[in-house]
Give the backbone structure.
Amino acid sequence: MSGTPQGLSLEKCSDKKDTLYKSVEIEIRSGEPAVLLSYEWFTSYAAKQLGITIGKCWAPPKAHHNRLTLLKSIHIYKKHRVQYEIRTYFRHMTYERLTESTLKTFLEYIQRNVPEGVAAKVTKKSVVNLPPSLNDSVRRLSLQ
């Protein structure tokens, strides 16, 4: 009798190799700069706990301003206008040298804890082998 319960089998994991990522950039944006600063601290702390190398964390000096001018009245009084403004603040965080499994765990954790009103965009740069056709031509050039 085996040591596993009935119906469960111990199958080998697939031999798929982990993808390596040179860097992962996370861009977060919100209307409140204090929330972004707090969330940056949270993600950096989570990365330190997982042993992830933290790269550059930065923010543009100015917010992005989107202004909209409308008439106060629908039909007349062209001189009377109202101006609305939406400010969007950005922060960029870079994490370096990650495996796919570590990245999935890290992204799932930080995306589950995104504050209200914050949008996140993730850009990954992976490391791949050269195709065999290019690899052969590079060898020929290096031998010449």
Observations:
- The chain is about 30% helix and 35% strand.
